[in-house]
Specification:
By secondary structure, this protein is of the alpha/beta class. The chain is built from seven helices and seven strands; from the N terminus they run ββαααβαβαβαβαβ. The protein folds into two domains: 12-24 and 84-177, 3-Layer(aba) Sandwich (Rossmann fold), CATH 3.40.50.1000; 28-79, no CATH class. It has helices at 28-41, 53-60, 64-79, 87-91, 106-115, 139-148, 162-171, and strands spanning 12-15, 22-23, 83-84, 98-105, 124-128, 155-159, 174-177. A five-stranded parallel sheet has the order 5-4-1-6-7. The longest helix is centred in the middle third of the chain and has 16 residues, at 64-79.
């Protein structure tokens, strides 16, 4: 990300995790297969849904907790061997409150940040399981900003996906794509 101190106009910076700061070592095809087995046992066709929709589908048949645990187990394993991405080096230079908001389970996010030596630099972590809603809902980002004590208009959210951009827009927060 060019620009030496792009964060200076903001009171706080919130990052997405996977694909932004770190890359979790998760075989998402294996996750989909494991989750698919649970859904097939309920008579559902998992291939008719996108990966993150599978959690919602599981909830509709009373299997949310089982599926969430399968995903969380894979994420936790992948968090232990996560690859540190270049933006992680920028995070440690930022002299503002920092948050992380992720679709990944909050426990896996914390483990990944700890493994990468970043956890002490992050004031708040909001992951799956922290709040009832997930990105692209603005709720996780707004919860993180509230915990940081920063108004959404004074923060920036940095992420790697259109879902991250949608989250920022819905929360009234400026967005910066990783690739910028």
């Amino acid at each position: 990300m060019p620009g030496s101190n792009w964060w200076e106009p903001y009171e706080a910076v919130v990052f997405d995790l996977d694909g932004t700061l770190l890359r979790l070592d998760v075989d998402w095809r294996e996750v989909e297969s494991d989750v698919g087995a649970v859904l097939e046992a309920e008579g559902l066709d998992p291939e008719a849904h996108h990966a993150w929709e599978l959690l919602d589908v599981a909830e509709s048949v009373g299997r949310h907790d089982d599926v969430d645990q399968i995903i969380a187990d894979h994420e936790l394993e992948g968090a232990r061997t996560a690859e540190r991405l270049p933006l992680a080096d920028t995070l440690v230079r930022i002299d503002r409150p920092i948050g992380v908001v992720s679709l990944n389970s909050v426990h896996a996010v914390r483990v990944a940040l700890e493994q990468a030596g970043l956890l002490d630099a992050v004031a708040v972590v909001v992951g799956r399981g922290s709040v009832p809603e997930r990105k692209p809902s603005p709720v996780p980002l707004l919860v993180a900003l509230e915990a940081l004590g920063v108004d959404p208009s004074a923060a920036i959210f940095v992420g790697d996906s259109t879902g991250d951009e949608t989250t920022a827009r819905r929360a009234g927060v400026d967005f910066r794509p990783v690739a910028e």
